[in-house]
């Protein structure tokens, strides 16, 4: 039985449906068979990088530069289907696409675009986004990493924390304070003084690479500065792009939990009847569907606005807040309804639940997005 009770798929164009089907097939054939083992062993599935690139999923919304040039809704369904497999796989694509390729395309020089975008699209180079610092968190203006001009070069010193793809990246987009405001620097990770240490002992996003970056007198030529933006507008606009993808992605995680839970309740027999014959079970399944449907329609409308060039960051905050909270609640409830089996990685809810504990925190915590929406309603900043 389909869980798409509102036939939301029919809202997608033929091209968008094709994208969804291709990514879904890729996840079924390549991600699902390995992801439990990767999660348990705390390893990123490197073998999936090239097939992901060959599907055109990296920088999919960029026109030219050997990128696929898809629309915003296509990018949304890509994120949704990838996160049905695992949040870590969607995070890899989100960072490469929204946090590295997008700012190079939006704010970079033509030379920077031609040098990096084709390589990043084909996964000949992996990128990471260096904004968050250990003391900064939700306040990126509390940045300590700084860059000083030295002739035709810049000298960067500082550190970044919780950086997805950090220890596998060939290129790091580092945001640093200068005498002329915050600027973005394209730092090749083999530069002297650049170090990336993978963060271990995570109980969330275990199939994703997370690292701490250290920059000790790293010398970067002036040609590696993004010329098109200055100040926090640069990194925050990148985060808006990533949050848009997240709002779609988490729907996939919720759907994966619901689909497996329905299968379980159809076969689990207690007190001489299957679980799905119980009113309490049906009510909880129905509530999951209600949440998934409303979140799906919210993201679809957001995608329409994005494709029309009308998307506002406040709208993105509302969608990210609502949809990640929805997905986390669905995953937690599904884990509970599985009984003792719910704590086993043989079933997907516990893995999605643990992953979503990170997703609800990164790219802006739930509270930050609530306050963003509040500011949009009142016109007053309560941060």
Topology:
Blueprint: H1 14-41, H2 49-54, H3 72-85, H4 87-107, H5 110-121, E1 127-130, E2 146-150, E3 153-164, E4 171-178, E5 181-188, E6 194-198, E7 210-221, H6 233-267, E8 269-270, E9 273-274, H7 279-307, H8 313-337, H9 348-359, H10 366-378
Parallel strand pairs: 1-4
Antiparallel strand pairs: 2-3, 3-7, 4-5, 6-7, 8-9
Helix pairs in contact: 1-3, 3-4, 3-6, 4-5, 4-6, 6-7, 6-8, 6-9, 7-8, 8-9, 8-10
Keywords for this structure?
four-stranded antiparallel β-sheet, about 375 residues, three-stranded mixed β-sheet, alpha+beta, 10 helices, about 15% strand
Mind explaining what this structure looks like?
The chain is α+β, with helices and mostly antiparallel strands and 383 residues long. 51% of the residues lie in helices and 15% in strands. It contains ten helices and nine strands. The protein has helices at 14-41, 49-54, 72-85, 87-107, 110-121, 233-267, 279-307, 313-337, 348-359, 366-378; strands at residues 127-130, 146-150, 153-164, 171-178, 181-188, 194-198, 210-221, 269-270, 273-274. The strands form three sheets. A four-stranded antiparallel sheet has the order 2-3-7-6, covered by helices on one side. A three-stranded mixed sheet has the order 1-4-5, with helices on one face. Strand 8 and strand 9 form a beta hairpin. The longest helix has 35 residues, at 233-267. It is globular and about 80 Å long. The mean pLDDT is 96.
